[in-house]
DNA sequence: CCTCATTCGAGAGCACTGCTCTTGACTCGG
DNA sequence: CCGAGTCAAGAGCAGTGCTCTCGAATGAGG
């Protein structure tokens, strides 16, 4: 998709990418609000105002980085899923969870950007939420397959859905997995929030003092969650 | 503790409190890094440099607000626990969870301050972690009581602890609840991360598009968690 | 090939930030 | 009552995001 335009257009595309790369680099070093347009420009040998030819504001740059981060995380999760034999449903489910954690640990500032506290007055533009849905969709895909096989065996003893929640789950199911009963989806959402809750706690230092090197705890929790949602062992 | 000092000391204490109050107010309106020392000073009718007589840096002010936030959250959780009859263990457990969510929703910027992405280069000082432990301690207290009564009935089917994790849990137990077996503590930690994961997702807008008015989902999840940890019904 | 609108980088400048240093007043304990 | 300690104020530094203007490069239409 690079060939078909003028030299100016190609230069523009390249510079846009370079700006994002440098911004991402600074993000990794100094964190989310250590990012400075002027510093990015300086590093690229241009003047700060030139950046505005490519990104109309700092927020727009941030948004681009956010979208990229969501996409990268989605790719990582998808890859982890596909790396395993299709029949190994529990393995795939757990692999996705571990992929999320691994990616987050390897790109902590980008993770903080998308799952940390939202930046200043900035509200996530529409475009980001499509990318944000990638990880849950991968999880749902595994879930659907297990459901189709009839091997889903959720733990007992776990709460009944209120009418409103059941309705919400049914609406959600219509969009992504019509055949899944609300009970299954509700548990999946619990798993989803748990997954990111653990990763955030680990990365944001909330786990210090309890289960600090948290590899084993994470593996344990992922196992518990697989049981909760009923992944066959 | 106010009486016993000179007028200057009292003035100092008052001004310190006023600065914190105004900072907290601005935090609530503009969010964590919309907070400006100059703006605080302006609002208080003083000049920016005067603030430095009371807080040596912006980070120190932030730290003070963080400590206060942890304390307020701890107080809210404790109060919720004590509001219920001592025998209603499951109710108390769930009330603590709901109190955390309610406090977070009512003080979203303060919540973001303590459970969102850590600020710039800032690392949480020792002082904060003691306050941060309040909520888990309240949960552990309920857990110990249930354990003492022998009414704890965890769900089956849930993973075995690896050696390392069991060791971590035993170490942790020694500090807070020597009689609790590592299995119980591990599940409690899962609940703890789940609780804050849900609250963060809700407040940070990650739930939009799935279970958005999340009251019912939250109640459901809290119920599931109570089962997981084995709270008697 | 030439023209002219569009696009671009550079620079100056605005309003803001956190923070430091100095100066001249105020307060209070010995 | 006076000197040490504390205070608010102001100027100033280095940095920020962002806007505007001005020459120069570019490239599409005539």
TrEMBL record, chains A, B:
Q: Which PANTHER family match?
A: HTH-TYPE TRANSCRIPTIONAL REGULATOR RUTR, HTH-TYPE TRANSCRIPTIONAL REGULATOR RV1816
One Pfam entry name: TetR_N
State the Gene Ontology terms under molecular function: DNA-binding transcription factor activity; transcription cis-regulatory region binding
What is the phylogenetic placement of the source species in the record? Bacteria, Bacillati, Actinomycetota, Actinomycetes, Pseudonocardiales
| Identification of the protein by name | AcrR family transcriptional regulator
Q: Which UniProt keywords apply?
A: DNA-binding, Transcription, Transcription regulation
**Domain HTH tetR-type as annotated: residue spans:** 13-73
Q: Which residues bind DNA?
A: 36-55
Instruction: Provide the species name.
Output: Kutzneria buriramensis
